[in-house]
Amino acid sequence: MSKNVAIMGTLSVGEGCGGCSNEHPSPLALGGASGCGGCSSGLSYDHAVEFSTAIATGGLVGQAFVDLPPLNQFTAVEFLKLSSTARIRLRINPTRPTMTGSVPLPALGVQAGAATFTVTDSTGTQYTATVNFTVAQNTHALVVAAINAALAAAGAPFPPDGQIARLSGTTLMLVSPGIGPAAFIELAAGAPVDLGLGVVLVRVTGTASDLADTEGLIVLQFPRSPNAPTKIQVSGVATLDIVAAGRVTA
Asked: Which helix (H) or strand (E) covers residue 246, if one does?
């Protein structure tokens, strides 16, 4: 069942503290086609949530970002109203670096050669491991297991949805533990050709769009899906009151 979001009221601009008589009211309303045929009815969205939360990311504003768990249920965030008690920064659509082989792994795995992998978390902390392939890695699953074991031994965290190395059918795929522009996956030059990832140095880096720092009230109306953000993160130390709406289905 869809939910409606409406904004009703005026934004007034006056002449200082005593300038009430000179106020120029401007109506507040959501743009676009109304969900129920009238401005006061607002707009119809697949789903909407309202919640309050406190955040406290490390370092300066913009140095570290966190997810807001209630927003993770959305496949597209089409409306966001946020009130913060202190300075914050929003990050729109951070991507998780992924490296995928151009050819499938051989049927007998990868039984010779060495590959050095470097992955990072979302803050850019690097974890490097070298895998020496032997006849023991004679299946696709054992190739994946060898890479994951080496990275785990190097202290690398794993992505929230599974391991770093995984299979896409019979093709090797590496998924970064980190997300956003500080995160990357790197394969050093000289890797076995049978991995399908190339034999020269290869690096895949995450991306994101950061908004200017804000404090107080933010109202953002995004384009409808598929042009709406699929993920929003936040950085800072503040208490947030949020209303979000958008799609929760593919």
From this structure: strand 232-247
> Each residue of 199-237: pLDDT tens digit?
999 999 999 999 999 999 999 999 999 999 999 999 999
What is the pTM for the complete model shown? 0.83
Based on the number of CB atoms within 10 Å of its own CB, is 206 exposed (0-12), middle (13-18) or buried (19 or more)?
A: buried
Percent of the chain with pLDDT over 90: 82
Task: Return all residues near 207 (Cβ < 8 A) that are at least 6 apart.
Answer: 93, 94, 95, 180, 181
3-state secondary structure of 195: helix
In contact, 104 and 170? CB cutoff 8 Å: yes
Which residue, 171, 174, 146, 139, is CA-closest to 158? 174
Reference 211, options 71, 91, 95, 93; nearest CA is 91
